[in-house]
Each structure stands twice: as C-alpha cells, then as structure tokens.
Amino acid sequence: MALQPAPSAVRAVAIVKYLADHPGEAYAVADLARRLGQSRATCQAVLLALEPSQWVRRNKDGYTLGAGLISIGASAQQGAAVVGLLRAAARELYEELGCEVLGYVSAGDQLINISRVGPSSLLSVTMVEGQSFPLAPPNGLAFAAWDESELERWIARAPTMSDEARSRLRKAAALVREIGHSVLLDPATRREFRSTVAELSAARRHFVAAALAHDDLMEMDSDATRTMRTSLLSAPVFGADGKVGGVLGIVFDAHQYADVAEIAESLKSACRQLGERLGAPRIAALAERPA
C-alpha cells in the first residue's frame, strides 16, 4: 500500500494556506474550522501545535499568520535562484517599458506572485507579493503550455469546462509554444481593441496580430473571464532542467496595442536572458521566432 500523507499534516497545511490567502484577517477557531471543513476540536488542536513556533498568532479577534513563517519564506527564496532573478528582471522591465510587471512561480496547483513593480492606481492590478491564486484556466497558460502532461493537468483543474473550450485551450497552447508568450485580454479591453487596431496601418495590424495570435482561442464563458479587468502578456523562464521555473507578466491596456509587439519582444528577451543565467537549454520558439 502506498504511503499516504498524515491527516494532521494535511490539516496544518490547509490552515496555513488559508490564512496566507487572507492576509490581515483574523478567524475564530469555529469560523476557520467551518471554512476548511474540519471539526472545531481538530482545528484547534492543529492551531495549538502551530502557535509555539509562531506559524500562527492568536489575538482578540482570532488567528492570523505568525511571524515565524517570515524566516522560513526567506530561506525558501534563498533556495530558489529564479525568485531573485525574476524580481530584478521585473524592475528592469518596468524601467524600460513603464508598464506594470509581475513575476510568478508555481507551487503545486497554485501560482504565487513574488514580484510586482509598477504604478499603484485605480486601474492597476490589485496584487501583492506573496499572494497566491489557482494555477487553472484561464490563469497560467504560460506555465502549462510547454509540457503536454502539465497542460492536461492544468485543463483538468477546470472540470466544468466544455469539450469545445478544452480543444480551444489545446490549440492556444500550441500557439503559445510557437510565438513564445501567452496573452490574456479582459473583455472591456478586447472591445476597445477593435476600434484601436482599425487606426493602424495594414502592416502594423499584422505585426500586432502576431503578438496577440492566440487570444481569441482563450475566450471562455466563465466567471473568471467575465470579471477580468486587466490584459496580460506572459512569458516563461526555463530552468536548467528545461522546465518552466517562473513567469514574467506585463500588464497593458488598449492604448498600448500599437506597441504590443515590441512589448512582447522585450518580455521574451528578458525571459531568455534569465533562462541563460539559469543554464536553460535553448528553446527554439523563444530563441528564433520574433514577436
């Protein structure tokens, strides 16, 4: 019989992850147990085990994450060379382009934002470093597109998706591998793009269309796409093992569509340079195909 994870360890991980996903909020034991589907007694026993190490902290309002996790997070970052490189590259891209730049790494079925550089305004992404969200459609195609097994696991995380939508995502993944980056357009920007691109020359429209090649295939009838408010170009950073170790993303709006091909090329160039520093094998799609 295959070994199974200890139930208490699974519950501890669930508690820490939930509190990490809701920073600044405190939860009473009963509330936290209900949200996680644990019994109150079991939840409290796990919290009591986590408290001495300051992985969680109790105040008058309930439990939050504790300061004991700070040193653990710092140690984890030191062990992941890609984190420091992504942060430095995000700053350089922001200085070059003036666009908001995001850096991500994956952890199981989650994406973790490890860098956000750019202006803070009502129109900017409400993302903070350390925030995580599901590595599932429509998020994370730049991670999943390069490996067929990972692509199928990624698609399977959206179980209610139709067969037609799954087919579109597989086609989108093939185009991502060809052009070297993924594109996710929010509905409002997609509508505005139709009028913006009409003002470009025919040659320029073709140039921009190449950079946005697969986005129409990404359209899905889901709450995630209906509520999106940002457009994002994302490109992978490969590690020495040839697998995606991280992703850089650039947020842009409809007024930048005339420059989107150049933005995509700058993004891919930065990711290629990071891959070279990490000892990544040469990826033909990224090394040879222009934006």
What is this entry, summarized?
The protein has about 290 residues and is an alpha+beta fold. It folds into 2 domains: about 5-70, Arc Repressor Mutant, subunit A (Orthogonal Bundle), CATH 1.10.10; about 80-290, 2-Layer Sandwich (Beta-Lactamase), CATH 3.30.450.40. It contains 13 helices and 8 strands.
Overview of this protein structure:
The protein is an alpha+beta fold. It folds into two domains: 65 residues, Winged helix-like DNA-binding domain superfamily/Winged helix DNA-binding domain (Arc Repressor Mutant, subunit A), CATH 1.10.10.10; 209 residues, Beta-Lactamase, CATH 3.30.450. Helices cover 48% and strands 16% of the residues. The chain has 13 helices and eight strands. The strands form two sheets. A six-stranded antiparallel β-sheet has the order 5-4-3-8-7-6. Helix 1 crosses helix 3 and helix 5 runs antiparallel to helix 12. It is elongated.
Q: CATH homologous superfamily of the largest domain - what is it?
A: GAF domain
Assign the CATH topology of the largest domain.
Beta-Lactamase
Broad structural category: alpha+beta
Distance between the termini: 50 Å
Question: What string, H for helix and E for strand, traces the elements in order?
Answer: HHHEEHHEEEHHHEHHHEEHH
What's the main sheet like?
Answer: 6 strands, antiparallel
The fraction of residues assigned to DSSP E strands is 15-25%
The percent range for helix content is 40-55%
Count of β-strands: 8
Taking pLDDT < 50 over at least 5 consecutive residues as the criterion, the unreliable ranges are 217-229, 284-291
Rounded Rg = 21 Å
Describe the global form.
Answer: elongated
Tell me the strand order in the biggest sheet.
5-4-3-8-7-6
CATH architecture of the largest domain, please?
2-Layer Sandwich
Count of helices?
Answer: 13
The tally of structural domains comes to 2
Q: What is the averaged pLDDT score? A: 79
Query: Under the CATH scheme, which class of the largest domain?
Result: Alpha Beta
